[in-house]
Target: Regulatory protein, luxR family
Amino acid sequence: MTGPASPALVGRDAQLRALLQAIGGPPAVILVQGEAGIGKTRLVRAATERLRAERRTVLLGHCHQLREPFPYGPVLDALRHAASALPPVDRLNPVTGALRGHLPELAGQLPPAPTPPPLDDVRAERHRLFRAVHALLAAAAPATLVVEDLHWADDGTRDLLRFLTDQPPEGLALVVTFRREDLPVPGLPFGHAYRPQPGVRSEVISLAPLDVEDVRNLTGALLGGAPVPKGFAATLHERTAGVPFVIEEVVRSLLDDEGRLPGGAEGPEVLDRLPVPLLLREAMAEQLAGLSPAALRVVRAAAVLRVPADEPLLAAVSGEGADDEKEGAETPGAGLSEAVKAGVLLEQPDGQYGFRHALAQQAAYDAIPGPDRWPIHRRAMAALSTLDPAPLVQLAYHARRAGDLEAWRRHGGAAADHAAAVGDVPLAVEVLEAMLADPKLPPDARGPLALRLSRIAAVGLSYRRVVRLLRHLLSDDFLSRHVRGEARLNLGVLLSNQAGSIAEGRQEILTALPDLHDRPGLAARGLALLAMPAWGSEPLATHEAWMDEAEKLLAAVEDQDPELTAAVHANKVTLAMLVGSPDAFSLVSTLPVNHPSAAVRRQAARAYSNLCDAAMALGHYGAAEGFAARSRTIAEESGALYPVYLVEMSSVRLHWLTGRWEGLRERAVAAVEMTPEAPLLAVDARLVLGMLALARGEWEEAAEQLGEAGVRDCESGFLPVAVLASAGLIELHLARGALDAALSEAEWAVGRLRRKGIWVWGDQLVPQAVEALLKAGRSGEAAGLVAEFAAGVERRTAPSAHAALGLALGALAEHEGGHEEAAARYAEAKAAYEAMPRPHAAARAAEAEAGVRLALGARDEAARLVGGAAERYAALGATRDAARCRRLLREIGAAGPARRARKAGGGVLSPREAEVARLVALGHTNREIAEVLFLSRRTVDTHVARVLHKLGVRTRNDVREPRPDDRPGPEPTF
Model:
């Protein structure tokens, strides 16, 4: 049967125009969505054919349903065809050399691989690879990158595309197609929320089924322009639901050898033999009936393989060579040629052959009689097993379909392990989930697979799907007690770490302990996790009791597992550091950093990442930096993943504390967006975003972000961060004049810290709570709190807590009129903060000292202190704090006649105008701006008028947040 030519695009004129217009205005991100067979590929192909006719660069990548663990594969496959668009190698960004190992076809056109050699740090290496892809696309621009069937993409590809959409190269148009209903996360093609960036064109093109008239036009095109009666088109529309691919398959199945409808299209009765609703497999069966045996064998091989394949593989799987020596046998490749000419198979890029659509593949597969499928699957296993590397996922699939259960278990387990090893945990989970759900899986294999699933999940970053699956498995009674106990323990670890559901995780661990009573090593690991005091509402004594019990259990084990021993010891050292124990630093030296086992060293890497957090909470910032670096080093060489992420997230808070604020907000925003499945990892970033907003006077942003940092989550919130967030909320309420709200927050947070009994974490909370209590006239309660705090931090190695105690004592002395004592306390605190270093806190202490110096009549000293604080605030970007200091200078008359800043010309804003413009862009009223910047309403009115004039806009709604190049250098403080 000779099929009709592929018709022109029908019924998609508006969508094609929108697609081409968007591509023509890069940078652009175009999302093409629609159900299976709706014409997404046809639409994109029509657009790219026009682009290629205009000699424009088109890079095409495909995601496949049956995929192997190859992160970023679709994008890298597309980039292989960028050779003709690249400039000479000396004009390429050197970072593109990182792609040499991934794109051997372009190796001669790429710079040398960056030195030092590729990083072992998973996150850093991934970021460098992403930058290299970005730079290569920028060099190839103008270009269109198309990624088809994004619903089948691996997580790495989604992350890479998300990176590209955040800041696309200027000349790049990114086009992705996907089925919305088949996305792993409904409505999120990139896995995370996509927000169009300023200056980037964004277009969503949704394809709906064709109407009757479009069905008529499409059918006419399929029939070579023959007229199609309305009645025929209406019935065809009814039977196919207007899905273009199904229409094509139905029409093709009805054609005779001359390419015409039997009896013509004079009436719809020709469709009567088609069932309602249409079963595509019947249409495909009729189409296959006209093929020769050789062509049919090739088509069946392609249907069994499920993914595009080259000619040698198709020949091996089809058994094409088996009859080659017989007289009159067709030559090898003849069957493939016939299948391609008949339009059943299509030639795809790189000499691969496959079906036009997944629906066609499934229909062809369904048309193969059951007994005939098994030998084809067995031939597929034999052919695929010769490849290097072996496609383990495909081998497992074919082994199961061939009925070889032993090979299925072997290949499936190996596929899951390999996927986990390369970081594709979702694929590992998918493989294991399919095996566990299969009724043919022998009962004795279910337990080991469930355990393997729990172990893989415990070291990955994805968790939602695994949690659901493990809970389902644990609800059944097929697991042995030992397997159930360890699997439940791993579930508890997963919930406590990646999921951030500490309460649920702890409950799973407590439930697992009875099943582990004769496995003391594992029980000790569970108890050691419970012993971490930064989570939960239990007092410190309970955590210490859990740790003591864990050590006793471990000591009773004759043949100790080094990894379990290291896990428990890592938590013991972390506990000591978290509470500021005097022997904490000496315990750090006992960590097994040089142990021959990589698994043991991974526990050391985890310990150092935890120590970074613990040292930060105490004010040992230099030590925290060292712990972070040590964690990264050990993690790099031992293959740890989770500690690398922890250290990266913690560094956001560390940089805020130590005054490295440049670019910090962008880093924190990226951290929040990159951890949608691991909310625990985002609390540091939330805290930093809230505190940065507070320092700039962005009240709503500060309240939202600080509220998301675990301040109300008593069981799962990370307490050292949560109390910092509460301190920020108290300051926010006081700044807005909401004393009752400040007192309420202080009472809640201090009560929580009091129940825990770890006062070293109150370094920012206690001074803020004392300020609120003193403002409310509750000086007795303030003094009691300070005394309790002093007793709690005594003999603890916690520089930040001791500095905070000085601030609190200074506030009490100042309230009682003891200005000399207060000045001394504030000065001591300032010196302590300078030594850490913590510049923002040091500036606050200087402000406080200036206030009492002024009360003592030392105006010049007060002005020096306030001026220094203002300069430090301005350097950090704490605009509201700097404005507060400038107001104080004006009030004490120390500023003198202000030296005028360099006059801003044209549309360039002065520093003060830039501050005003930023607040206008955020939606603040003039009254609110006056409050934030400590200016008069009239002054703000003047500044707003100048901003509108310089920016050339008519209303404040048109004002955008200024960029750094919109304004001149800083205004002098005096």
